[in-house]
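Dear colleagues,

As part of the handover before I leave the project, I'm documenting each prediction I ran so the next person doesn't have to rerun anything. This entry is a single chain, and its sequence is reproduced below.
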Amino acid sequence: VKPNLVDVLTVAANQIVIANHIPTVHVVHPSDLTQLRVTKATDEQYVNRLLDVNGTLTLDGIPVVANTGMVVDNFLTMDGTKDTVFSKGEMMINIGLDGDDFTKNMRTILAEWRGLNRIKGNDTAAFVTGVVSTSITALETV
């Protein structure tokens, strides 16, 4: 049976567990999430390890989240507890006029936020990213 996205995410979660972390989320593009929802096993039944409860899809108990910031055919599996976001001040929002905005009844909005996303060096194994099609090819050779 040819490997699929379910297999790729399962192997990624396993890599995190082997590194002594606990996978908390899979992040994929919405199109890839749709692909997961319609994935069927060889018996033409939907994969029973994928559960959709109230619109939240989980694979072996790990939530699968869609994000348009993720490129199609890419994935991120991670232990989110190993990621820290530091904020430097509050978000600054300015609303103003630019050019002929006044006569067109328009406003220009500028929002700025400064922050830092930090992953400690010894926690990098808690994050697995990759290209789905490349990962499927690699699984086929195993």
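The chain has a mean pLDDT of 92. The CA atoms of residues 93 and 104 lie 21 Å apart.

All the best with the project,
I.
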